[in-house]
Design goal:
The chain is α+β, with helices and mostly antiparallel strands and 180 residues long. The chain has one domain. The protein has two helices and eight strands. The strands form two sheets. It has a five-stranded antiparallel beta sheet with strand order 1-2-7-4-3, covered by helices on one side. Strands 5-6-8 form a three-stranded mixed beta sheet, with no helix packed on it. A hairpin with a 2-residue loop joins β5 and β6. The protein is globular and about 45 Å long.
């Protein structure tokens, strides 16, 4: 019987460098929808601005709209309906993540449709201020020197937070970034 051994196509040093480069690219993030790690604690809404848990963030929501939108989800039925619309472009669509609606609610911020990639819409804080539930969102816009994907996008951020009786108000700050 003859024994076959494989000869590496690339020298070991080159292969190692390629693996390191691939690992760095994959850890740098992606422009698509990526579910967040679950299990972070949920704390009251009137706590500091950064207190919420990301459920999903990305640039391909199926929730259509001509302007930025904010959704407050308080029941399982509302959640399943919004999640179904949100995941309309995904096949097979994943099931809605678990939310304990006896203690929590979902806030979804969805941007308007954008003409290309490179846009980001991220909730940076949720605070009760003078009887209002203010949802702060940072919108980043690619500069004219950026090379972006030629695809229509709809950036979004979906989070869970402690229940509140207040209706959310969207407060958006915009920043254009440079790639040069």
């Amino acid at each position: 019987m003859r024994s076959l051994t494989r000869t590496p196509f690339l020298p070991a040093a080159v292969a190692t460098l390629l693996l390191l480069a691939l690992a760095a690219c994959s850890s740098a993030g992606s422009s698509g929808s990526t579910p967040a790690t679950q299990g972070s604690p949920t704390v009251p809404v009137n706590a500091p601005a950064e207190v919420f848990e990301t459920i999903d963030i990305g640039d391909q929501s199926g929730v259509a709209g001509g302007e930025p939108q904010i959704f407050k989800i308080e029941t399982q039925a509302e959640w399943e309906e919004l999640w179904s619309r949100h995941q309309a472009n995904v096949s097979p669509a994943p099931g809605a993540p678990d939310v304990d609606f006896s203690r929590e609610m979902v806030i979804a911020a969805v941007d308007q449709t954008e003409p290309s990639g490179g846009y980001r819409f991220e909730i940076t804080g949720i605070e009760e201020i003078e009887g209002r539930l203010v949802v702060r969102v940072s919108k980043t816009i690619p500069g004219s020197d950026c090379i972006v994907t030629a695809v229509i996008t709809q950036p979004f951020h979906v989070v869970r937070v402690a229940k509140s009786d207040l209706e959310p108000e969207l407060l958006i700050s915009e920043e254009t970034y440079s790639c040069g």
